[in-house]
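TL;DR need structure tokens for one chain.
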Amino acid sequence: MDFNLTEDQKELEGLAADLLAREATAERLETHEKSGAPYDRALWKALAQAGLLGIALPEEVGGAGLGAVELAVVLRAIGEQAAPVPAYASLALAALPIAEHGTPEQRRLLAPLADGETVLTGAYREQGDGLAATARRDGDGYVLTGVKTFVPYASEASYILIPARVEGGAVGVFLVEPAAVTLTPHPAATGEPMSRIALDGVRVGAGALLGGTADGAAWTTLRRFAVAGAVATVSGVIDGALKLTTEYVKNRQQFDRALAQFQAVTMQIGDVYIAKRALDVGVWAGVWRLEEAARHAGDTDVDEVLAIAAYNACDPVVKALYTCQHLHGGIGLDVTYPLHRYFAAAKHYGHLLGGAEAQLDVLGGLIADAPTVSMSI
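>> reply
TL;DR here they are.
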């Protein structure tokens, strides 16, 4: 199995890296943080003009019609620069589920996103385990009840994708406008806007149900892309932190020697590299399987591989970032130094994913539920 990028994917990777290196400089990130703006609108527009926001969107709405691997390439590049844009929220949590399951009318909502004119998001998390939000049929519509947490850019979004259990059916995903729900801001490690959403009997029309059916398929897609997008972003985050730390230990002098010349330092840098590579393997294996599952309508071991990638993002990578901070000494704790953005981003996505223990629980459940194959000789 070859997870090397194709030539086209490498060109996409180079385009994204060049644009973000040029547009998301340290000075610009500092200016943005001082501004208090929810995201860098100029950078968001630049990503759209380069075609990066539409890379995995349908061609009929101005996208390139590509898939999960190309989305991961873009999100990795954004993570590597710790760029303050709502790409994960808009693309992984919303656009891909809409593109795959939406009606033609619902898919048309993606056109402004491809142009960088709007933001979308999805409510992936709830308090506790499982999915407790419900959707009760009410005439020709539905009444939504429940609580969603850790929803990024909810107040900035045009629509929020909200999964809920429909009585008498499976899980449906609903397109809901922010004005229809109660939003309570809560802090995030990265400083980006996050919200708790209270669904106090929110009524939506029949046209709000994604794809017009509650068969669980749209929720499966949203859930999988939520994990895949998060681990792809963290893969870029640890890549950026490792490059920053490697450059620092090569140039920082201690006892008239570069830090990189000390064996203990090289061993610790090696540990960071191993954590990064382990996550990379999980990311590319996961998004490849995700793309294959969509293309062939099969249910491969995508959930198991994504859970393994998520575990690595929540535990080994976060520990590796502690090592990066340690190797920087006191400067690693200085919020005027870029390393803090990578650390904050890794913690942020670790929280979104539910933490390492939650991923081990998911993986254990998937293994326990897998059919037993008997072999006779």
